[in-house]
Specification:
The complex is a heterodimer of chains A (about 400) and B (about 100).
Chain A lengths: L6 E5 L1 H11 L4 E4 L6 H12 L6 E4 L3 H13 L4 E5 L1 H16 L5 E6 L13 H4 L7 E4 L3 H16 L7 E6 L8 E5 L2 H8 L6 E3 L5 E3 L19 H30 L8 E4 L6 E5 L3 H14 L4 E6 L1 E3 L3 H8 L4 E6 L10 H10 L7 E6 L9 H17 L6 E3 L5
Parallel strand pairs in A: 2-3, 2-4, 4-5, 5-7, 6-7, 12-13, 12-15, 15-16, 16-17
Antiparallel strand pairs in A: 1-8, 6-14, 9-10, 11-13
Helix pairs in contact in A: 1-2, 1-6, 3-4, 6-8, 9-12
Chain B lengths: L31 E5 L9 H5 L5 E4 L4 E4 L9 H5 L5 E5 L4
Antiparallel strand pairs in B: 1-4, 2-3
The chains are: A alpha/beta (about 400), B alpha+beta (about 100).
Chain lengths: ~400, ~100
């Protein structure tokens, strides 16, 4: 497929997401406003009011209901979208499990924001990390352009017949959501063609008949009822299988999108930046990667072999890509924008350290927890992390495995 | 559940039901069993109406109330609603 001509317009992350959802021809949006996501659903409600979309927009009284509404809409075969953040995502928690268990391919943008208390509206990843094990695909964007691109890709990933799982796209609160950026936008028709019409998997119903997996009076079907010791475990195993299959689907959709847009993000699962010959590396997610790349460039200019591995897909976790990219590195710092209180480091650290455990030449690994509640992460701070990695690479000794950076003692 | 249980690769996704609920025998949940007293019963049919499983029927030929123990969960609603106290809930195995 040839590259499509695009228009570059100034958009903040939230408006980029709203525009992407609009172009994806969504049937139902049910949402409740919460900072820093509000702009997304506000903008989308404007599209509805102005007749620019044919979407049914459902105003609800809470995020719990927003997700409930999305699940039922999606279960009828409708393409469904919503957005939330922080406490809103936490309030959805119960229904997030229902969405993944009922295999409703909802797409949701999560504008990552700190969890209360004390109340804080700024960025960290603690909200989405609380939903790590709930069965949703999680993709993290580095900038608003990627947030736009990822929402479009997310519909194809979620609705893929091999996947059929809800998908959340994370973008950093305020850093991306409220910051104006030049975003290259595909024509409406190109997006419509790319996402296509929602595919519905076929299932055997109670009469032994093959019917579409959706709530339809013409083909009555019961979805997700009481499931006890005899079958619940089998259904959970199915979800795990679909997550595994999503690894390939995320890559395929990413590649196909790259052909049209001319934009790619590593292999779609991870993005390796100047990593091939690197001796020391950082691993991070989200907007911080942009700052880290700047620091890597500076270090490279001074002859230091530094690199970055950005995790784009956190669920499913691309273990093979993590292993192949970090194999042979001398020292690696995993940067977590969330804290697992009482745990051995942040949630990303757990994953990365676990992934490289079996490597015979595994790197020395440290965890640096940063930026909670929107605390700034300037290049100088990242530079300090790399300096520390250099020391670890030289001596082979780690002073402190888990450490907080940018924190006053 | 008399038939061989299926593996995770065979069952439809999302907990979609692939058999009728009538094939799911709820009778094995029962720990108390309703025992009907023909003399006391006034044939008002309230038990038939209240039974959540539709497990109580009136046989018009014999004029008897009949219980389907494949589905009776032993909930005791019939005994509770019976205006003639014609149903006793007896622990299974102690009749």
């Amino acid at each position: 497929m040839a590259k499509v001509e695009q228009k570059t317009i100034p958009l903040n992350g939230d408006n980029a997401v709203a525009l992407a959802a609009k172009q994806c021809d969504v049937d139902v949006v049910a949402a409740y406003p919460i900072t820093p996501q509000t702009i997304i659903v506000e903008k989308f409600s404007e599209y509805v009011a102005d007749g620019e979309v044919e979407t049914a927009f459902v105003c609800v009284e809470s995020e719990h209901t927003a997700m409930t509404c999305c699940i039922t809409a999606s279960a009828t075969g409708a393409r469904t979208f919503t957005a939330t953040a922080s406490a809103g995502l936490a309030l959805m928690h119960e229904m997030l499990g229902v969405a993944s268990g009922c295999r409703t391919p909802i797409v949701m943008s999560v504008v990552n924001r700190a969890m209360s208390a004390p109340i804080n509206i700024h960025c960290d990843h603690s909200d989405a990390m609380c939903e790590r094990d709930i069965g949703w695909i999680q993709i993290y964007a580095e900038n608003s352009q990627e947030a736009y691109d990822s929402i479009i890709q997310a519909f194809r990933i979620a609705e893929d017949l091999e996947v059929t799982l809800p998908t959340m796209v994370g973008l950093d609160g305020f850093v991306l959501s409220h910051t104006l950026e030049n975003v290259a936008v595909l024509p409406d028709e190109a997006v419509k063609q790319f996402v296509g019409i929602r595919q519905i998997p076929m299932v055997t119903n109670h009469e032994g008949k093959l019917v579409p997996f959706k709530l339809d009076p013409a083909n009555p079907l019961t979805i997700g009822p009481l499931d006890l010791q005899d079958y619940y475990f089998e259904h959970k195993r199915q979800q795990e299988e679909s997550m595994r299959k999503a690894l390939d689907v995320i890559k395929q959709v990413h590649d196909e999108y790259a052909e049209q847009s001319g934009r790619s993000y590593g292999n779609g699962l991870v993005e390796a930046y100047k990593l091939e010959d690197a001796e020391i590396a950082a691993v991070c997610m989200g907007s911080t990667a942009g700052t880290v790349k700047t620091v890597v460039d500076e270090l490279r200019a001074n002859g230091i072999k530094a690199g970055l591995l950005r995790i784009r897909a956190f669920r499913p976790l691309p273990v093979e890509d993590i292993v192949s990219n970090l194999s042979g590195k001398k020292a690696v710092a995993v940067m977590d924008r969330a804290c697992s209180f009482g745990g051995n480091g942040g949630p990303l650290f757990h994953e990365i350290r676990h992934a490289v455990y079996d490597l015979p030449d595994k790197p020395k690994l440290v965890n640096r927890i940063y930026g909670l509640g929107g605390r700034d992460i300037p290049p100088t701070m990242i530079d300090c992390i790399y300096k520390e990695l250099q020391k670890i690479a030289e001596t082979g000794e780690i002073e402190r495995t888990v450490q907080f950076v940018g924190l006053r003692e | 559940m008399s038939r061989q249980k299926k593996g995770w690769k065979e069952i439809p996704l999302g907990g979609a039901c692939w058999m009728s609920s009538t094939e799911y025998k709820t009778g094995d949940w029962r720990s108390y069993k309703p025992v009907w007293n023909a003399e006391k019963c006034i044939r008002c049919m309230l038990c038939h109406i209240y039974c959540p499983e539709g497990a109580i029927k009136h046989d018009t030929e014999t004029n008897k109330m009949e219980y389907n123990f494949d589905f009776c969960k032993g909930c005791g609603i019939c005994a509770n609603e019976c205006p003639a106290q014609a149903i006793d809930m007896i622990q299974e195995g102690k009749e």
